[in-house]
Amino acid sequence: MAIKAVLLDLDDTLWPVAPVIRHAESVLQQWMHEHVPVVAQNYNVEELRERRNLLVASDQRFQYDLWALRHTLLKQVFDEHGVAAEKADHAMAVFADARNKVDLYSDVRPALEALQEKLALGTVSNGFADLQAIGLAHHFKVSIAAFRFGCAKPDPRIFLAACQELRLEPAEVLYVGDDLLLDVQGAQQAGLKGGWMNRQGLKIEDERHLHIKPDAEFANLHELTLWL
Length: 228
Description:
Blueprint: E1 5-8, H1 18-35, H2 37-42, H3 45-56, H4 66-80, H5 86-99, H6 108-116, E2 120-125, H7 131-134, E3 142-145, H8 146-149, H9 156-166, E4 173-177, H10 180-189, E5 193-197, E6 216-218, H11 221-227
Parallel strand pairs: 1-2, 1-4, 2-3, 4-5, 5-6
Helix pairs in contact: 1-5, 4-5
């Protein structure tokens, strides 16, 4: 079947995510120093990350709802230090605002404009970036985030839900993302085409990935546009 829609991953596909998270965590830490110093004095960024990793095992929801994971941890540590629970809401708002200040790869805006003229676009993401705040929402007919949907990639249901919203068969949809297991294999197992966004020019060498055969490989969105 001809490709009638492209679904895109967000983090490390449309922007590099590691510097975004580092910045957001730094901004949150500075906010805590100013507004809840007793917490900031007892927990730095690394110590909060360690506790967050431990918390993941306590509730299956945290496997896909990263917003709830961070929010729950903040409520816990605030409560332990006698800080009002609503402060955790304020803290998450600070973190989320910084989380949405991304630096798009240079090809993203022009390529989305070009792709939008050819076919339907959508996103499926395990993160909780806000496309409206980032300024990209108008490009996409459907955007599904794991923390709202109730499961995360590579679960087939999240890919199929996007296809259903687009009113297309999975075989008519190409999903493009940077992660071979979550994105490429996940999409293919749901019946979609799986494209690998390989911006770093990586080779498939990890034994866990050797069996994965992307339907296409791209160094950027311009190559995706040409491939289509």
